[in-house]
Specification:
The complex is a heterodimer. Chain A is of the alpha+beta class. Helix content of chain A is 46%, strand content 15%. The chains are: A alpha+beta, B alpha+beta.
């Protein structure tokens, strides 16, 4: 009985708080296809999940382009990730999109993989399953963004943040975790702050 | 004791004024006009220069001029003092040098002795072959060495030895792909292929046109059938080929014993009889029991058991070359379908049996029903032909082809059941690139696709060769070589020098240049990838045909909402272009989202060659056959998956004109 309010809150957040498909997902999927990125990003480059950043223009999103290294076939779950070197930054309406953003990143040795590509959860997923989860992740991110922009917190935000982090651990490339943090240190600090409150 | 004190005083003074004496002058030098050998200089201090006293004596003697007495006295005193003071100096110096050079000499001698001892045990680099003969021998030597190391590789060695092709025979590509996979022996230094005077051109498969004509005219005796088949196929291929395209008959002319599907509907540029003629006359496989015994309409089943193996390259094809008949190899064809392998045979048999029982069964379901895990391509994970330098392939594994690239000369693509039953038809030929397909090594989907297209017009290029061309022309994205704090002076641009085969980095403003190194090329290959713009440029670099490419490229200020609409509209255009190109026998490649194509969580953009489409009589397209360098050869992709993967990418497509 004492878990009922929390359960109801969680149910509400899943059903009404966040939509499964979001404009951010569309924007995120299109970034690679824009002329700005086509001239910078080569074929066979993978791209990471988006992470929000905030500045005086509001909330924007960043993701990384990187290569995977595998001796097997394409889509190999045992692939390793190479350090990301290209970073895109965009707003949800593509009014300001750049694919050559310079972001300080952890040191990495050229030509050496930085870690695994798959998590235990993604290892067995097919593309549809992954997309479903990734869409949910992006939708949560979009729901968190207004709160992140003004540093607001609340029960719904905390619940969304918790699910967001859970999905991040499930979907994000283990080898790129430090790089995700470097994409937007402020966002991760804000998320950690929500947990403490 | 008295002498000792005098000596110490002398030494101290000498070190203090050493600079001022000949032989050790460093700065502010002067030649003393008068000397005193009492141990004190005119300035009041002792004037001893270690190692310079004899020089000073000489100077003093010259200063005496014609005065004999002065000179004699100076010589006696000066040389005596010189010997006393310079002797220890040179003795110590001499011992020092002696020790130094002695040690150096000993080291050198020791090193050479060591090298001499190690020589018999050390493998020496073999110079790259500069002739076809040397190239063949090196390949066979390599295969022999591999077979010695691993007994399971012996069949491959025997096959390579028994099927040596001519330098520009039709089976060369197939032989090289199997016996020299990955270009372990480089052919970069081989002379250019000889062009023959008759028409000045090679046939599509690389055989001189005049030789083919002669072969057809002179074929007789036991070789007659094979010569006729080869010559006719080559001649037909040449005649039927449009000026800018190589017909799908080309592969059939190469491996005349492989189970060539007889029911492949010809492309519009080919007449049905042209296709049927060679394939219906061939297949002289003695061991019929070992061949696929199913009755799929796509696979010949009644094989003449009395037929003898034929030479891959007929003797008549030797005209104009310096090769002898023995060079062509007497082994003929491997009657047990070596290119398919034992497991491949089983997969194929299972498929044929299932397809026979349930003709309406979907192709993939039919294969899946057999329990095989690689339904779309029996060749992968099934070949028993190991690659050079690699362990024998393991058993087939779901969605994970073996690490090694299977040899080219892939087994023919098993046709879609509806095509096999005549309900649907093919646009294009799924086996068009059968002898040039290789698995990619790194992010080289573009070179692998280009290799297939170029081989289609008789231009043989390895994956590596094409990769380095991409690098040289700067069509390769190399962000890995730069850091986030990029400035105009940062070493960010990669320059590949084809003469040294090394890469170096330069700054944007060209004011700085790094050291050339092959390591940089290697890093670039691991972390970079081909730019889309480089694809047609690479093909146009080598091809006699002209390649054009198109991509979904919305204006920069397009809003997100408009993008979806524009993309959907472009799909209709792209689909029409693709089918038109296939109908006209052109080379076609498209970009696809790897994750959608492989059904795995990956967002890599990828390029594949499209060889054919399956079309119902009402014009509905059921699916496409693609050669995926990171996946499998001749994979049938249902239209829904195909178009989703295509639109998930950038709707990129490239066609030969």
């Amino acid at each position: 009985m004492r878990h009922l309010p929390a359960f109801l809150l969680l149910f509400t957040s899943t059903a009404y708080g966040v939509e499964t498909a979001s404009p951010l997902w569309e924007a995120y999927s299109f970034v690679r296809k824009t002329p700005q990125c086509q001239t910078v990003v080569g074929l066979e480059m993978n791209y990471s999940l988006p992470i929000p950043v905030r500045d005086n223009k509001g909330v924007r999103y960043r993701h990384m382009f990187y290569r995977t290294y595998s001796k097997k076939s394409g889509g190999d779950p045992d692939a390793q990730v190479m350090p990301p070197r290209i970073f895109a930054e965009y707003d949800i309406d593509f009014k300001d999109l750049r694919c050559d953003v310079a972001i300080p990143m952890p040191e990495s040795e050229p030509g050496k993989p930085v870690g695994a590509y798959s998590t235990p959860a993604t290892r067995g997923m097919d593309m549809a399953q992954w997309e479903e989860q990734a869409k949910r992740f992006v939708a949560l991110e979009e729901a968190l963004s207004p709160d992140f922009a003004i540093g607001r917190s609340g029960p719904q935000t905390t619940l969304n943040a918790r699910e967001f982090k859970k999905l991040f651990r499930k979907l994000a490339e283990p080898g790129l975790r430090p790089y995700y943090r470097a994409l937007s240190p402020e966002f991760w600090m804000w998320l950690e702050g929500l947990e403490k409150k | 004791m008295r002498y000792l004190i005098a000596l110490l005083v002398t030494f101290q003074a000498a070190t203090a004024h050493a600079d001022n004496y000949p032989g050790v002058c460093v700065s502010n030098c002067h030649i003393p006009t008068s000397t005193s050998y009492s141990g004190y200089s005119p300035e009041g201090g002792p004037s001893i220069a270690w190692g310079g006293m004899l020089g000073r004596a000489n100077q003093n003697i010259r200063n005496c001029g014609p005065n004999f007495v002065c000179a004699t006295g100076t010589a006696i005193v000066g040389y005596s003092l010189g010997i006393i003071f310079d002797g220890p100096y040179y003795a110590i110096k001499g011992v020092g040098y002696g020790l130094l050079y002695g040690v150096k000499g000993l080291g050198f001698v020791g090193k050479k002795i060591g090298q001499g001892i190690a020589y018999p045990f050390k493998s020496r680099p073999t110079p790259p072959p500069a002739s076809w003969e040397a190239y063949k021998h090196q390949i066979l030597k390599m295969q022999k060495r591999l077979a010695k190391k691993d007994k399971t590789l012996r069949p491959n060695y025997v096959w390579c030895k028994g099927n040596v092709p001519l330098s520009h025979g039709p089976s060369r590509l197939q032989w090289e792909s199997r016996c020299n996979p990955g270009d372990a022996i480089t052919r970069a230094y081989l002379p250019e292929t000889v062009k023959h005077s008759n028409a000045g051109e090679m046939t599509p498969m690389g055989l001189p046109a005049d030789v083919v004509a002669t072969a057809a005219a002179t074929a007789s005796g036991s070789d007659a059938a094979s010569n006729e088949v080869l010559a006719k196929t080559e001649a037909l291929a040449s005649a039927a080929a449009p000026a800018d395209a190589v017909p799908a008959a080309a592969p059939a002319s190469v491996d005349t014993t492989a189970p060539v599907p007889t029911s492949i509907p010809p492309a519009p540029s080919e007449s049905p009889s042209d296709i049927a003629a060679p394939t219906s006359q061939v297949a002289p496989v003695p061991d019929a029991a070992a061949t696929p015994s199913g009755t799929s309409p796509g696979i010949p089943t009644a094989l003449p058991t009395s037929a003898q193996p034929v030479l891959r390259d007929p003797a008549s094809a030797l005209k104009g070359t310096q090769e002898s008949t023995s060079d062509a190899g007497k082994g003929g064809f491997d009657s047990r379908e070596p290119m398919l392998g034992a497991k491949g045979q089983e997969v194929l048999k299972d498929y044929q049996a299932t397809a026979k029982q349930s003709p309406d069964l979907d192709y993939e379901t039919a294969i899946a029903a057999t329990g095989r895990t690689e339904p779309t391509n029996p060749s992968f994970g099934a070949s028993n032909v190991p690659a050079a330098g690699a362990a024998p392939p393991a058993a087939s594994k779901a969605a994970t082809p073996p690490d090694i690239s299977p040899p080219s000369g892939m087994p023919p693509v098993a046709l879609h059941p509806l095509v096999a039953s005549g309900t649907a038809s093919l646009i294009g030929n799924p086996d068009r690139y059968r002898f040039s397909f290789v698995r990619q090594n790194g992010a080289t989907c573009v070179p692998v696709m280009a290799r297939q297209f170029l081989a289609d017009e008789g231009i043989l290029k390895s994956e590596d060769e094409l990769y380095y061309k991409v690098l040289e022309k700067r069509w390769w994205a190399t962000p890995a070589l730069c850091t986030h704090d990029r400035t105009p002076q940062s070493l960010c641009n990669l320059i590949y020098d084809p003469t040294t085969k090394q890469c170096r980095l330069t700054s944007d403003d060209n004011t700085k240049s790094g050291q050339p190194s092959a390591v940089i090329c290697s890093v670039a290959r691991k972390e970079g990838a081909t730019f889309t713009v480089g694809i047609s440029a690479l093909l146009n670099e080598y091809s006699k045909r002209t390649y054009a490419q198109a991509i979904f490229s919305p204006p920069p200020q397009t809003t997100r909402a408009e993008l979806s609409k524009l993309q959907t509209a472009e799909l209709d255009v792209a689909r029409k272009e693709l089918l038109d190109a296939l109908r006209n026998g052109r080379n076609v490649g498209i970009g696809m989202l790897g994750g959608t194509l492989w059904n795995s969580p990956s967002k890599e953009l990828h390029v594949v060659a499209v060889s054919a489409a399956v079309e119902l009589p009402n014009g509905t397209i059921l699916g496409y056959y693609v050669n995926d360098g990171a996946g499998s050869y001749g994979r049938y992709v249902p239209v829904a998956v195909f178009e989703k993967a295509w639109i998930d990418d950038t709707l990129f497509r490239i066609y030969s004109k």
